[in-house]
Fold this protein.
Amino acid sequence: MIDLHCHIDLYPDPQMVIRKCLSKSIFVLSVTTTPQAWPISSNIVSMHSKMPAALGLHPQLAGSRRSEVDLFDSLIGETSWLGEIGLDGAAEFSHTWQDQLFVFEHILKSASYDGGKIMSIHSRRAARDVLGVLRRFPDAGVPVLHWFSGTLAELQEAIDMGCWFSVGSPMMHSKSGRALIARIPKTRLLTESDGPFVQHSGGPAYPWQVIETSAELSRVWGVDPKVVSAQLEDNLACLLSSI
Ligand code: MN
């Protein structure tokens, strides 16, 4: 099982989540939301080879955390993974749009200087802008668009640019999300929980629940669940080989 976007440090009991992931041998990318949280957040998972930590500065925090880009730069050499980064075009964050652009561009520039990273990217209501910025920093690394919710045309643009996608239960449970998933190349797709932000059965989503997204994928693709799981493992190996 693979969870390519999970906020392990934000669960009430991260160690419980880690133990259960280890027992089920789940690969979990633990994304973070601010550089200030990095020492603690990365330490939580640092013992475990299947749980890399990604250095992030969440676009919804860019307005208040813009000054942390210098700290971000001082930490970027510690990891091959970045996230959660990106842009959020929702109305409630429109007053921080210039800060979001500043932070996202700064991070992509730093990633380019540092040789390229695998990047878990937020693009809610901002798919076109995210793709526009990514296009200007082709050496920043491999973008993985998490919970993509753009149009089919924007999806195609992202595919043509070489983007990857991580998909979870909210996408699977919406009609537009399923239409997007059906068009994502099978070789560029991975699963995610986005826990604990995403809710599942009345509580926070957990990494092991990606098994349900895999089961849905087997219906969408019309193949056996074992084929889905082999494909996802191949995809992860391919993504890992890019860094
Ligand atoms: Mn997230």
About this structure: The longest strand covers residues 81-86. Residues 18 and 47 are 11 Å apart (CA to CA).
